[in-house]
# Entry
Amino acid sequence: MRIIFVLAAAAVGGILAVTTAFGGDDNVPPISDAVVQEECSACHFAFQPAFLPAESWSKMMGGLEDHFGEDASLSETVRDNIEAYLVANAGRGNVDPQNPPLRITELRWFKSEHSEREAQRMMERLDVKSLLSCGACHQGAERGIYDDD
Ligand code: HEC
Ligand code: HEC
# Structure
């Protein structure tokens, strides 16, 4: 519990920043590396590195052949480059280096910002199939997340 709590506290900066990240401010900049953007958006939204700490990215990048049940392996050079980018731009938080969180969606701040009822309602309204499609709801004015407030 404590580990998650610390990370959640650290993520508060990210929380305030994301609206702006998707809305044009650069507190949590969008991915600026074309290779990361391409390789990590093949199956889902390319998550910004600031949403997980460095330990999480390293662990994830060390196990791409079984990435949540999918084979997402890459050549060694590409893998190394992507890991370096993710780590350099990672969020902060004290996590157990042996067992860092791998899912943004399971972090406490994420769950509290996306309460089941609210998120479900919005997913239906915008016809979004998965909570992992961050950009479908968070992309600034066109389909602003605040329309619903
Ligand atoms: C071959 C498809 C594929 C590729 C390529 C891929 N992923 Fe994934 N990723 C998945 C699947 C499948 C899941 C689990 C989805 C689910 O639970 O609905 C996932 C989940 C994740 C999650 C956890 C999301 C959450 O919070 O629940 C992160 C973080 C992630 N991927 C990062 C990456 C990164 C970084 C890359 C690029 C190196 C990448 N993925 C490339 C298929 C892929
Ligand atoms: C179905 C629509 C939807 C999806 C998909 C979604 N979110 Fe959200 N998100 C919301 C709503 C609604 C809020 C609450 C906004 C509020 O209360 O002001 C929110 C809040 C947030 C916040 C808190 C700061 C803010 O902007 O208010 C962050 C950070 C965030 N989401 C990140 C993400 C990330 C990262 C993903 C993908 C892993 C994601 N969201 C996916 C709808 C969504």
Notes: Helices lie at 2-23, 34-39, 54-61, 76-88, 108-113, 116-126, 134-137.
